[in-house]
What we know:
- By secondary structure, this protein is an alpha+beta fold.
- It has a single domain (about 1-130), classed as 2-Layer Sandwich (Alpha-Beta Plaits).
- Helix content is about 40%, strand content about 15%.
- It is built from seven helices and four strands, in the order E-H-H-E-H-H-E-H-H-E-H.
- The protein has helices at about 10-15, 20-30, 45-50, 60-65, 80-90, 100-105, 120-130; strands spanning about 1-10, 30-35, 70-80, 115.
- It has a four-stranded antiparallel sheet with strand order 2-3-1-4.
- The longest helix has 11 residues, at about 120-130.
- The protein is globular and about 40 Å long.
- The structure holds uridine-5'-diphosphate (UDP) and magnesium ion (MG).
- Uridine-5'-diphosphate binds near residues 53, 58, 62, 92 and 110.
- Uridine-5'-diphosphate binds next to loops.
Amino acid sequence: MVQRTLAIIKPDSVEKKVIGEIIKRIEEAGFKILAMKYTKLTEEQAKSFYEIHKDKPFYNDLVKYMTSGPIVPIALEKENAVEEFRTLIGSTDPTKAEEGTIRKLFGTNIERNAIHGSDSPENGEKEVLFFFSKSEIVYNY
Ligand code: UDP
Ligand code: MG
């Protein structure tokens, strides 16, 4: 099944100047880029994006971190995209992530973990539309 998933290159990666390193790995893994932008979340947007975690102890810090600097959201498409992208990025905690994964390579800690990946095909669709309108999605290559 061809699926969509949302990647977000998080503020720690932008600060470390590894946007290119990360996109290179995404391209090499065979993901098709449908849309991409360089932007910054407002507090309201970050709260809404991570609403599912609103009762977690890490929520307020997560919102602070995700609004602390620019991010690069990227809409991706591939066969089995959600699971394959989660494999490419590795576990939430970079110290526990598999060797060679994006979080292992570029993450700092369980909060500042370099990159986001959607957790289900439904959320992949939903999260892509959080950042990109249908007219911003490019199909023709
Ligand atoms: N997070 C955190 N502390 C935790 C767990 C998660 O700060 O104990 C942050 C981290 O940036 C993570 C995000 O909250 O990527 C969302 O958490 P989730 O459990 O959905 O992890 P993910 O799906 O990103 O691996
Ligand atoms: Mg998640």
